Amino acid sequence: MSSNIQSVVSTFLRSHRINEFNEWRLKNLILKLNLDGTDLSNLDLSGALLNGVSCVGCNFSNSNLCQANLVQSDLSKANFEKSNLTSALMMYSDLSRCNMPHADLTGTNLMWSNLSNSDLSYCILTRTILVESNLSQANITGVDLSTAFLKYAKTDNLKKVPM
């Protein structure tokens, strides 16, 4: 992706012009967007169409990603600390080695996603869909999994630090 397109995309997202970004995105779905390392912290990105986007190492801390579409996105090593991901679509996404403490994942669909080696400590996972996801070696300290959907999820070596 050219740096000009990356700059335009970043400007749309940072200036809270999500509707304009989504319209542009629908017309340019063939483009593989690369936002690796971009600081998108403290933004309202609710409803953003970020499906298939590479966001390796992005900072989404304290951002609102409620109902965002992040299907098949590469979000590895991203920071989602204290982010609102309520009802987001994140199926087939790579979330390995992510920093997600205190994130709200209520109703989020993470089916078939890779969350291995991620820090999910104190996340809210109420009605979160984790069917067939990979949670190997994830830190789940302070997490209530009682209402999460975990059927066939890979839960090898989950880490739970005693308090």
Give a brief outline of the structure.
The protein is low in regular secondary structure and 163 residues long. It has helices at 3-14, 18-27.
What are the salient characteristics of this protein?
163 residues, Pectate Lyase C-like, 2 helices, little secondary structure
Furnish the topology, listing elements before pairings:
Layout: H1 3-14, H2 18-27
Walkthrough of the structure:
The protein has 163 residues and is mostly loops. It contains 2 helices and no strands. The protein is elongated, with a radius of gyration of 15 Å. The relative contact order is 0.11.
CATH fold descriptor: Pectate Lyase C-like
- Separation of the first and last Cα atoms: 45 Å
Structural class: little secondary structure
CATH class: Mainly Beta
Largest sheet properties: none
Q: Classify the beta-strand content into a percent band.
A: under 5%
